């Protein structure tokens, strides 16, 4: 039985050298066969050559580790799992961050602890490794093997619009003693009854670290359908009344008995609960005063010269708006190009080459906030400024006893695209500012590659004001409920809103 000299990696014919010992290798792709294999066992002519195997590792791979990896696949082709794992393990010993042998040990072994160990090692080096995340989710029970198999596609879930109001489950925020209305006392950090004096400690707890974006996207890919909800049907547990509410509301009051309801889920499982909530620090009085002060600014006085922008009447309400909050690990490149005349590209190649300087960097961004609703307008909520999210606590329905909350209308996958854009802009600013030269001939470009992202859904405090001016123009004003920053919208005619 002869030796098969077809390269299992690229299908080219391999070369055999016999001195000082037998050496079989491929000049085309560099594959080297471990000649310690028993060729009479490894080469089974009826099977033909082993199918090519791709290497997914990003970066350089030790040549000996590469050869051992392919040798492991030679053994797998012969259904010899024990020797295959040994070859993969030897490859890892030569290069610990070579992810492919880790991945194939996890695929080959029947030991769940070993699988978890090697998948964890891959994600430590490459947090966004899709295949490792997929396999780990199956081990954790987050995906079934059948669901994982359905994620190997690029199709988005089919959007299905609910034609009728969807039934909901709610939590009613009422006093356990008298059934009265509950509220939050921010000064004493308690939940209180307005009628009988009942008090209880305000819920506290960590808002959590968030979910891995890759895992959530895989979970979404496993689902063939995604529901779009226009209205939900709410049954009041207090008085028995039923009514429909808009699909963007997380909490609401019953117009018949006044009881406060927080939606916990609907029958289609179309949304997820917030992970955390940030309490109000700015009172209604302070928010109103901040808006009045902003209206006295120079820009507002100038606008008054062209129209009567004095406020005739106004409403001011506190709301919890949903925000997707992202953390990102970033790897990037920074390219500095000196376009000075002295770097004459036609005369001196070495001088031209020195004009181009490229460096790599690793960076991270935390608490990238993306508002998850379209009303108030997104161009206003984007100007509210950063919140100190270290003050956020775990979400509990009781924390909505004082102010209502909205339900997100932008899902996390769309918000992630906006978060990536925000991150790229911050990286450009951060790594461009490091150029100290004022020379206008120098240009700098920064490219950012998101290595991994985590996210969570938080409810953040906002005061929303509707200002009606004396000329009947209507304006929206927002106040950051933690910092007090004011954002004024443009005046609009009532019939154009």
Task: Provide an overview of this structure.
The protein has helices at 39-42, 63-77, 81-94, 99-108, 112-125, 130-139, 145-149, 213-221, 284-295, 298-304, 349-354, 378-381, 412-432; strands at residues 15-17, 23-25, 32-33, 158-161, 166-173, 182-185, 190-193, 199-201, 211-212, 225-228, 231-235, 242-246, 251-253, 260-266, 276-277, 311-338, 356-371, 393-394, 442-469, 474-480, 486-488. The protein has 497 residues and is of the alpha+beta class. Among the domains are: 15-142, Tetratricopeptide repeat domain (Serine Threonine Protein Phosphatase 5, Tetratricopeptide repeat, Alpha Horseshoe); 158-274, no CATH class. Strands 9, 15, 16, 17, 18, 19, 20 and 21 form an eight-stranded mixed β-sheet that branches. The chain has a five-stranded mixed β-sheet with strand order 12-11-5-14-13, with no helix packed on it. Strand 1 and strand 2 form a beta hairpin. Helix 3 (81-94) runs antiparallel to helix 4. 30% of the residues are buried.
Quick structural summary:
By secondary structure, this protein is an alpha+beta fold. Among the domains are: 15-142, Tetratricopeptide repeat domain (Serine Threonine Protein Phosphatase 5, Tetratricopeptide repeat), CATH 1.25.40; 158-274, no CATH class.
């Amino acid at each position: 039985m002869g030796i098969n000299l077809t390269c299992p990696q690229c299908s080219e014919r391999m070369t055999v050298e016999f001195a000082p010992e037998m050496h079989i290798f491929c000049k085309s792709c560099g594959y080297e066969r471990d000649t310690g294999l028993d060729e009479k066992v490894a080469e089974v002519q009826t099977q033909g050559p082993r199918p090519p195997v791709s290497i997914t590792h990003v970066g350089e791979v030790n040549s000996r580790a590469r050869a051992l990896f392919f040798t492991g696949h030679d053994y797998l082709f012969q259904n010899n799992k024990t020797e295959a794992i040994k070859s993969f393990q030897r490859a890892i010993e030569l290069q610990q961050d070579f992810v492919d042998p880790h991945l194939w040990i996890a695929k080959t072994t029947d030991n769940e602890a070993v699988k978890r160990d090697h998948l964890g090692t891959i994600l430590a080096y490459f947090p966004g490794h899709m295949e490792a995340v997929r396999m780990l989710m199956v081990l954790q029970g987050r995906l079934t093997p059948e669901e994982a198999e359905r994620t190997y596609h690029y199709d988005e879930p089919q959007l299905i619009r609910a034609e009728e109001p969807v039934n909901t489950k709610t939590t009613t925020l009422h006093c356990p003693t008298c059934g009265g209305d509950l509220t939050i006392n921010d000064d004493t950090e308690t939940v209180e009854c307005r009628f009988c004096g009942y008090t209880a400690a305000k819920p506290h707890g960590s808002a959590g670290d968030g979910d891995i974006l890759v895992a959530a996207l895989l979970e979404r890919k496993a689902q063939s359908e995604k529901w779009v909800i226009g209205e939900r049907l709410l049954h009041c547990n207090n008085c028995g009344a039923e009514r429909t509410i808009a699909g963007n509301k997380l909490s609401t009051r019953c117009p018949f008995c006044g009881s406060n309801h927080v939606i916990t889920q609907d029958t289609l499982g179309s949304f997820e609960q917030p992970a955390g909530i940030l309490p109000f620090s700015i009172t209604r009085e302070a928010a109103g005063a901040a808006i009045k002060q902003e209206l006295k600014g120079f820009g507002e006085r100038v606008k008054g010269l062209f129209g009567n922008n004095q406020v005739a009447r106004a409403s001011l309400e506190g709301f919890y708006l949903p925000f997707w909050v992202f953390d990102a690990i970033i790897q990037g490149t920074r390219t500095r190009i000196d376009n000075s005349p002295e770097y004459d590209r036609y005369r001196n190649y070495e001088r031209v080459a020195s004009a181009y300087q490229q460096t790599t960097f690793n960076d991270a961004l935390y608490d990238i906030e993306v508002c998850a609703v379209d009303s108030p307008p997104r161009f206003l909520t984007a100007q509210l400024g950063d919140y100190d999210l270290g003050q956020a606590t775990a979400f509990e329905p009781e924390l909505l006893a004082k102010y209502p909350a909205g339900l997100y209308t932008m899902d996390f996958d769309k918000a992630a695209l906006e978060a990536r854009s925000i991150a790229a802009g911050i990286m450009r600013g951060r790594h461009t500012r490091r150029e100290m030269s004022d020379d206008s001939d120098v240009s700098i470009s920064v490219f950012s590659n998101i290595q991994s992202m985590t996210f969570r859904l938080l409810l953040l405090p906002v005061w929303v004001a509707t200002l009606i001016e004396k000329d009947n123009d209507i304006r929206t004003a927002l106040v950051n409920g933690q910092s007090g920053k004011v954002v004024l919208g443009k005046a609009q005619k009532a019939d154009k809103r």
